[in-house]
Amino acid sequence: MSWQAYTDNLVATGKIDKAALYSGAGDSLWAQSSNFQLGQDEISAIAKGYSDPSNLQAHGLHVQGQKYFLLRADERSIYGKQDAEGIVAVKTKQAILIAHYPAGVVAGEATTVVEKLADYLISVNY
Question: Which GO terms describe its molecular function (predicted)?
Answer without folding.
Answer: actin monomer binding; phosphatidylinositol-4,5-bisphosphate binding; proline-rich region binding; protein sequestering activity
